[in-house]
Design brief:
With about 350 residues, the chain is of the alpha+beta class. It is built from nine helices and 22 strands. It is about 20% helix and about 30% strand.
């Protein structure tokens, strides 16, 4: 597995567009990225309805989802938009008494982890066991009485663990920068109410299992292999419609697939050299969002992962979440290509036919 540093560098252009704090510590070689639930981009976004005082916001109650976001990013470089995680927690009722129920970490990983290149690897209940997991390259979710955070690295030189805090608090947790290095003994003495629980939920990367693809291809839908992904009118304009259309030999149906890093690819219309892009950019991805073509800018909305399925077909997953899907699950001229929940149907299975 590539190093965290290489993974971060590989998507640096995308990160520059994201609301994060990228922090340089006293060590010149230490760059630490932390996603904050209090960022102005989304601090007032609704998490769930609390039943007596309206909706709880991200800033108030989304430390659990943001801890998943931070843990996965430092695990394999994959950015998960927090709305994807909070919507999933809400739809499956994982916040019975405020905040996020700890059982959600396993549940989300088992249902959605493959979309983002990670899996749930169990629970450990000591700092010694946590150290072993971090040295394997895994990351962890942790909590004290009222707050959830991530632990993503162990430093051998002084026996300290790197804690990421999506709601930084210098006075209570020593995380004014969004992170802190602490020993187990220091965790037990911090001023925040309740010491850190020694229950750690472990995430493990599976991104190395992702195929790497380069070349020119036609993309046939499993719904009917006589239909292929198509750029409307063979347009070279930004914003042009991405659809399915009956197969022909024109360049409207030829795409160049190029591996960027860590299993993520761009899919370029061979005629325009513009990329298959989630409409609205990196922060608009949700089920039913349509796809267009757009000039390359390196954002998550232009990155795609190919996951091998049956009969040599692939599920094509967007880095903003969800899968490349045929509108209405029907192979019909003009039906749009759009994002939809991973469901394993023929509408999400694609065959790559060489167009070299």
């Amino acid at each position: 597995m590539k190093s965290v540093t290489k993974r971060i560098i590989s998507i640096l252009m995308a990160i520059l567009m994201l609301p994060v704090i990228s922090l340089i510590s006293a060590k010149a070689d230490e760059t630490i990225t932390v996603f904050k639930q209090t960022d102005k981009q989304w601090e007032k976004s609704r998490y769930y309805y609390n039943g007596w005082n309206g909706y709880n916001s991200f800033a108030e109650s989304a430390c659990g989802p943001f801890s998943i976001m931070n843990a996965v990013f430092h695990l394999n470089g994959t950015y998960i938009h927090p709305q994807i995680i909070t919507d999933d927690a809400t739809s499956h009722n994982f916040h019975p008494n405020g905040g996020t129920d700890p059982s959600f970490y396993k549940d989300f990983a088992e249902r959605c982890g493959r979309d983002f290149g990670f899996e749930y690897a169990g629970v450990v209940d000591s700092f010694d066991a946590l150290k072993d997991e971090l040295l394997k390259g895994n990351t962890a979710i942790c909590s004290n009485y009222h707050h959830v955070m991530s632990i993503v690295k162990y430093r051998k030189s002084d026996g300290r663990f790197l804690l990421l805090d999506s709601s930084p608090n210098a006075k209570r947790r020593g995380t004014g920068l969004g992170y802190t290095w602490k020993t187990p003994k220091e965790f037990s003495k911090w001023r925040d109410p309740g010491k850190l629980y020694s229950t750690f939920y472990i995430f493990r990367s599976i991104i190395e299992d992702t195929p790497v693809i380069n070349g020119r291809y036609q993309l046939q839908t499993e719904l009917n292999r006589g239909f292929q992904l198509d750029i409307y009118g063979d347009s070279r304009e930004e914003g042009a419609k991405v659809q399915v259309w009956s197969a022909h030999k024109g360049t409207a149906q030829v795409f160049t697939i190029q591996h960027i890093a860590n299993g993520w690819h761009v899919i370029k219309h061979a005629d325009s050299d513009k990329c298959l892009t989630v409409s609205g950019g990196d922060f608009s991805g949700k089920a039913s969002t349509i796809l267009t073509q757009w000039g390359y800018y390196g954002g998550n909305s232009q990155l795609w992962k190919f996951v091998k399925r049956r009969d040599d077909s692939y599920e094509i997953q967007s880095k903003v979440g969800y899968c490349l899907n045929v509108e209405n699950a029907e192979a019909k001229n003009g039906n749009r290509a759009l994002l939809w929940y991973e469901c394993g149907t023929d509408a999400q299975n694609w065959h790559l036919v060489s167009a070299q």
